[in-house]
């Protein structure tokens, strides 16, 4: 039975068997409205927007980006870029992830951009009609959001769901000079042959085994690739070797973590048993009643700083 949220209890014996089978499979093989511009790594003298949500000036004629400055945020805090899925806006992503509430609690800022089109869709593969350059656009969004919030430019993380998750992986390929880490959710569906990051980029991918839109094993309505192939590509790009450390942070979650990659990078995968397509946990940021993707992605992204190649 498919679940959009993670519930239930998995036995230890079953979990051990699933982990063993899984390991065998995966180990083969425009200017802001206010505020100054901080110098790289030094926000001194920068005056950020006040706490709360704000709309930045439109960039490239697109839907304006919403930024949220957490209540306890200070200059030099991290910035998270949150990318919505197909047909969704940045405001939608803010609503169902409740990322702004977590920013209020933990003291960071979030930017919520929207893709182009009547049914917004990120140009992950570069083949959309009109060929919108979403990488160039999101570079401008990051620059504007960092300036407006006085965030540390070395602590910019990106996450997203579905098509937005795929775009976050695209940014890991193409903007490793700007972002510290990426955490796609239900978005590890493409191995990108033209992916050449300038440095190893930490990656967390979260995916449900019962995803009917982006199937875990590939294909489906999105003609997606398999999640294990996505992970294998990033292990190769980040020069990760050996077997992962396996754990069960939740009864229905198997975490695989490849550490010791080049440049201090990590490749991590949270495999959610029987979960369907979406953002597991939705607005639960406390990770008490179930698995919370918002808290999980933030914990990962906030662990890394951008380093030079």
Automatic annotation (TrEMBL):
Gene3D superfamilies documented for this protein: alpha/beta hydrolase (3.40.50.1820)
One cellular component (GO) term of this entry: extracellular region
Alphabetically ordered keywords of this record: Hydrolase, Signal
InterPro entries the UniProt entry points to: AB_hydrolase_fold (IPR029058), Esterase_phb (IPR010126), Plant_Biomass_Hydrol_Est (IPR050955)
Protein origin, superkingdom: Bacteria
Keyword check for Signal: yes
GO molecular function: hydrolase activity
Name of the protein in question: Polyhydroxybutyrate depolymerase
Organism: Baekduia soli
Lineage: Bacteria, Bacillati, Actinomycetota, Thermoleophilia, Solirubrobacterales
């Amino acid at each position: 039975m498919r679940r959009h949220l993670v519930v239930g209890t998995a036995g230890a014996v079953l979990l051990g068997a699933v982990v063993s089978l899984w390991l065998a499979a995966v180990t083969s093989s425009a200017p802001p409205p206010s505020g100054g511009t901080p110098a790289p790594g030094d926000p001194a003298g920068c005056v950020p927007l006040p706490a709360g949500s704000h709309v930045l000036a439109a960039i490239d004629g697109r839907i304006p980006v919403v930024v949220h400055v957490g209540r306890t945020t200070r200059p030099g805090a991290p910035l998270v870029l949150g990318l919505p899925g197909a047909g969704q806006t940045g405001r939608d992503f803010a609503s169902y992830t409740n990322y702004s509430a977590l920013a209020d609690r933990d003291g960071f800022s979030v930017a919520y951009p929207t893709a182009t089109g009547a049914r917004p869709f990120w140009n992950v593969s570069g083949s959309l009609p009109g060929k919108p350059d979403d990488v160039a656009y999101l570079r401008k969004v990051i620059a504007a959001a960092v300036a407006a919030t006085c965030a540390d430019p070395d602590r910019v993380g990106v996450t997203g769901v579905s098509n937005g998750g795929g775009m976050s992986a695209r940014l890991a390929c193409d903007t490793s000079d700007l972002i510290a880490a990426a955490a796609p959710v239900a978005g590890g569906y493409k191995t990108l042959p033209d992916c050449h990051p300038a440095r190893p980029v930490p990656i967390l991918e979260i995916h449900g085994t019962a995803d009917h839109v982006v199937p875990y094993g590939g294909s489906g309505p999105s003609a997606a690739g398999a999640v294990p192939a996505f992970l294998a590509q990033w292990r190769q790009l980040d020069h990760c070797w050996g077997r992962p450390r396996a754990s069960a942070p939740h009864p229905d979650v198997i975490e695989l973590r490849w550490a010791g990659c080049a440049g201090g990078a990590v490749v991590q995968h949270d495999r959610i048993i029987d979960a369907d397509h979406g953002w597991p946990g939705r607005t639960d940021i406390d990770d008490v009643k179930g698995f919370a993707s918002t808290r999980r992605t933030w914990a990962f992204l906030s662990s890394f700083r951008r380093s030079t190649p």
